[in-house]
Each structure stands twice: as structure tokens, then as C-alpha cells.
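user: can you give me the structure for this one chain? C-alpha cells are fine.
assistant: on it. calling the predictor now.
[tool input]
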Amino acid sequence: MANANSTPVGPPRRTRDAVLAAIGGTPDDLARLIKDRDDDDLLQPARDGGWGVVEVLAHLRDWEEVFLERVQRTATEDRPFLPSQDDELWPIERDYRGQDPARTLEQFRKLRGQLVAFLRTLPAEAWDRVADHGVVGEVTLLWMADHVCDHDREHLDQVRDALA
């Protein structure tokens, strides 16, 4: 059942294979972007005053735990309800600025590896399984994985901006 305040989601834009390629490459993309950067570069806020690299890395790592759990539930449960997540205070509560960027990237890499490995085990029909998302309503597993691609792209752009 869709949330009364939700708007219908469109179809995923990417195929299963394109999703796997994109999300599988994100940790390496991040590693290339921050390679040979000093701590000052990684702590510098974006030009718009937004997050620096260290916050983006921690955000991606923390959301990866959520995405992994949602995908696993959707693949194994019958139409699970996926509650919304309020991540607004995570940077403060979890001290994003105080985290080691290299360690945080490795934690993200490990979680992303688990997500990709899990998705690779799924038969084609599992990608059409449905969940009820607390904000957007009815979604498929493929839609969620496609959304991860968009989330990654947004934050890769944010990292590029913070390092410009």
C-alpha cells in the first residue's frame, strides 16, 4: 500500500546489468577521486558550504547498511514495509567529521561488496519483487537498486565539487 503522501515512482532507468556495473564501481570511483589527497582536502566543505569528502563517505557507508537491509528484505519477504529513515542528525550523532576517510571508504567498500554479491545471487524474477517504501510507496527491487545508482552519482558529484 502506497503512502498517502507519496508520489508514484517511475520505472527504473537502468537494466539489472547496468545497475550492477554502476554500483559495483562506486568504491573504486571514490578511491580514484581521493587518491593522494591530504586530510585538509578531505575535510574541506564543498563550494556551496555543504559536506566535505569525509561526510560524504560516512553518509554513503551508513546508507549502504540501510540499502543492504532493504534489498535483502525485499528479496526474501512478501511485500515488506520499508520505513523512511531520518538521516538528518547522523552527521552529528555519528561524528562524520571525526571519522578517518580511508577507513570509512573501506567500510563502505565492504558493505557495497556485500550488496553487489547478494544482488548477483538473485534470479531475474527477484528483481521484480515489490516492497512498500515509507516515503515513495510501492517499489521494486530493481527500482531500489537503480535508486542506489542515482544516490551514488549525486554524492560522487558532491565529492568532485568538494575537491575542486
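assistant: here you go. The chain is about 60% helix and 5% strand. The domain at 16-163 is CATH 1.20.120.450 (Four Helix Bundle (Hemerythrin (Met), subunit A)).
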